[in-house]
Each structure stands twice: as C-alpha cells, then as structure tokens.
Amino acid sequence: MSRRNPGRPLHDVVVIVPGIMGSELRDAESGRPLWGVKRLVQYTARAHMRALRDLAVTEAEREGRTGRVEVTGLLESAEWMPGLGSAHPYTSLVSEMRSSVVHKDALLAFPYDWRLSVEYNGALLAKAVRRRLEAWRAHPAHRQYLHDNPEAGPARLVVVAHSMGGLLIREVLHRDPTIRDDIRAVMTVGTPFHGSVKAVLMLNSGKGLPLPVPPAVLREVAPTMPGLYDLLPAYRACEEDGDMRVPDIEDIVSLGGRRELAKTTLDWRTSRSGTTLPEHITVVGLGQRTWTSYRLDGGTAVFARYLFKRYNDGRLLLGREGRAQQDPRTGDGTVYEHAAQLPGTVRPVHFYHEHGHLIRSRSVLDMASGLMHGLRHPEERGAMLGDESAFALHAPEWAGLHEPFTIEVGGVGRGADLECTVREVSRLDEELNPVLRPAPGRPGVLEAACQPDRPGMYEVEVVGGDEPKRLLVPVLEMGYDG
Q1: I want to staple 451 with a disulfide (CB 3.0 to 4.6 A). Which of 43, 84, 382, 404 is the partner?
Q2: Are residues 364 and 247 in the same domain?
C-alpha cells in the first residue's frame, strides 16, 4: 500500500516531458485538431486513415520550416495510432506534480511535435528548461522560500520523462552540459534508450499484421517522420542467417525507410551514445507481451518475442543442434525491458504495467511526487509501492465493431479474486463487466470475451492485486475506401 509524501516539498522546477503521441497537434492555418481530437467520430477506420495522412511530415518541415503544425498542449484524451498503439492522457501526472510544487509557476509541461526528430525537439526543450529555471529563480515565491529556508539554496530541476521524452532530456544534456549541475533528479518511465521494434512495424507499413488501415496509407506517412526513425532498435534486433545484429542503414531502407533519414538518425544516435543522465531513476515495465526482434521475409517484417542467448563476450550460445538458443523476453508492450535502460543503470524500478499506463499508475505517480521530497526509490517511502502482484493483462491492440475480443490475465495465483470492467472513456456512458474464467488447459490464465455495441475508446481494467491493471482498446467501425 502506498503512502503520501511527508514533510516540506522542495522548491525545484518540475519538468514533464511526454512520449511520442503525447502532445496535441493542430493545423496552424485552419485550427483543425490533428492529434488529440476528443471526438467519437474518430473511431472509424476511415477517420484514422484521414488522420494519419494529415500527420505526414513535409520536406519543408524536415528542413526546419515547421509552421504548418502547432503544438497545443499535453494529450488530455486517449488516442490511438495503428502500429504504435494507444496513447494515454497526462492529466493525472500534471495534477500530481502541480500539487507537489511550491507554486504553479515551478511546473513546466513541455509538449512538442513528436513527428519531428529528437534532435530538433531536444533543442527546443533545452531553451525552455533554461528559461523556466532562470525565471523561477527570480520569482517572488522562490525568493520567499529561500527567505524562510536559507539553507535550501537556489532551485534545481526535477525531470519526469515518459517514453520518447527521456530521449529529449538526454539531448538537452548533450547540447548543454552545464545544465547537469542544475539537475536534482531525472526519472525516465519506459524510455526506449535502445529503441523499440514497434517503430519497425510502423516503418514497414504494418505488412503481415492485421491493421484497420491500408498499408499504402502507412507507407505515405511513417517513412516521412524523423521522430519514428529515432525510435528504431539500437540493439541486436534484426535476425538473419541464424544470428541477430543492430539494424543498419540498408536494413532500415529494406523496411521501407528513406536512406537520408536513416543515415541522419544513426549518426545522431552514435554521437549521443556517451551522454548519461545525472541522478537517474529508471522505471521499466515488465510482464507484457512485447516484440523484441524481427526478420525480413520478402520485404515483410516478421516479429518475435525473443532474442538469442549469448556469452559475456557476445558469442552466441548454441544448442545441441548448433542453433542459437532463444531467450524469451518481455517488456511494457512497446519497449523491451533492457531497451529501457542506459548502460550502467543501477537498480531499475520494475512495474507490471503497459507502456502507456505506466505513467498513469499510482505507483509511478507516487514515485514522481516523492522526488519533490528527496525520495528516490520506493522503499525510501517506508512502503513498497504496488506490483507485488505480477499478473499481466493482455488484450488486442484494436478490435472491430460487432466482433468480440478476448481479455486475458496471466500469472494468476491460486485463490486470486480478480474482477474485470470495460469502460468507454471518450464520453460514451457505457460500461461492461465481462467475467474472467479459467482458460482451458492453461494454468494461471484467466480470460473473458468482450463485445461493445458502439465504437469508441475502451479501457479494460482488472482489479484484485495491489494496483489495477489497465489497457486501452479502440473499437473501430470498419470499412475504408482507400
């Protein structure tokens, strides 16, 4: 059971950096929302096809002329992109950290155009962080705090970064090493420091997988996004001829990527490989089914949930038949567990939550607010936070209207009393209560069937452990005309 933070809060600036898809975008000329639409009409395959096309990055935008799309704020409603999956709103995190700072002006939420490169957005973040810290140190509330607590010294920075946001804060440290001394703590949550195979899926246009939009639409959009290239795997994820290697330029082009963008992202990655994060707390998701590797078969990526076992010197560990031994891995459903850790990571904090829900979970929110009291690890709060129950929740990335989908809970111990609720979260007043039953022939697994009557964004919640497990499943009205 978690416990609220004791004592006087620190007077630092809190910086919240969301992940990919975590910022709302709109067309600058018309004001039309492009991402974070908040309308039920979006839950059709045709609507998603139009929305994807609107998000394609133009040549002018890649060259730095970026006025076509405006960033309007952090995501406030659930969204979904074929291939990358669901994006959760950041309202819970913002509310938690707003209540943790000594004044509202000590909170900086940094939305950004996640379609563009980490290098581009990191440069904007570096300027924004420096401006806010200087402004806060001159703020009357900061001066009053130092008057009352002269031993405190000038405010510093506490950064909470989700997913791609962790790459942005590392870019800040690369660009402005002097800011390192101004950082009290950085907490990254599900950050793909070594990439994610889901970016491969997007770049390969979802070939070979059932998606509700034509591959031709993804081919129009995904290869134009520099930000997507920055999320490609930087570990041995590409299987070929009985071994695995780090994808190179030719591999990225074979997936459907553009050569110039592939080269740019690999050069960027190499130049940042030595940049570390000061006072780094790493939160990693576990237990979710996560693509960890792929191979190309006739131009189509075939995905797997294993890597190959290796000796410490990198040599393959072979089985009796001379084949590489598979090493099954999990993660948060988007980022494989070790891909979320920088080299030398000490004591990563593990939670059994899905990638998007990690940043909304009570355990992670308590950790984030604890940073404002100088607490860096769960046990420092005097209570272990969440996740003594390591059961994992699984559901499809999306479902078609009038087609039942299966909810599955794995790792269930004897005597567990779990309940499942499915709620529509985009303004429909609809709630379902599918009954979890033992899966035939699968010990420790419960399952339930669910079939909503209307399209929308549905949140699956399973309670019965220390903390609820949640997943988003968009239910789409199918049909598109190309």
Answers
A1: 404
A2: yes
Residue 118 one-letter amino acid = V
SS3 380: helix
Strand order in the sheet with 437-438: 392-394, 405-410, 446-450, 437-438
The domain of 417 spans 392-476
The pLDDT mean for the chain works out to 89
Does 9 fall in a domain? yes
Least confident of 162-166, 294-298, 442-446, 465-469: 465-469
| Per-residue pLDDT band at 46 (split at 50, 70, 90) | low
pLDDT digits (tens, 9 = 90+) for 323-336: 999 999 999 999 99
Contact between 381 and 375 (Cβ < 8 Å): yes
- The predicted structure's pLDDT at residue 41: 47
What tokens appear for 31 in the block? 């004001």
Q: Is there a domain that residue 482 lies in? A: no
CATH number of the domain enclosing 87: 3.40.50
Check: CB of residue 281 under 8 Å from CB of residue 187. yes
Q: Residues 65-86: pLDDT tens digits?
A: 999 999 999 999 888 888 888 8
Q: Is residue 257 in some structural domain? A: yes
For residue 190, give every residue at least 6 positions away whose Cβ sits within 8 Å of its Cβ, in sequence order, or none. Answer: 19, 162, 163, 283, 284, 285, 332, 334, 335, 340, 355, 358, 359
- Cα distance between residue 437 and residue 445, in whole Å: 8
Single residue among 353, 370, 387 that ends a domain in this structure: 387
Distance CA 280, CA 159 (A): 10
Residues 259 and 189 grouped into a single domain: yes
Q: Looking at residue 177, what is its pLDDT?
A: 93
Residue 242, judged by CB atoms within 10 A of its CB (0-12, 13-18, 19+), counts as exposed
pLDDT of residue 464: 86
Q: 226 pLDDT exceeds 60?
A: yes
Sheet (strand 33-35) strand order: 33-35, 23-27, 69-74
| Residue 7 in domain | yes
Sequence-distant (6+) residues with CB within 8 A of 41 are: 47
Euclidean distance between CA atoms 13 and 183, whole angstroms: 10
**Whether the Cβ atoms of residue 41 and residue 21 lie closer than 8 Å to each other:** no
Ranges 126-140, 199-213, 256-270: which has the least confidence: 199-213
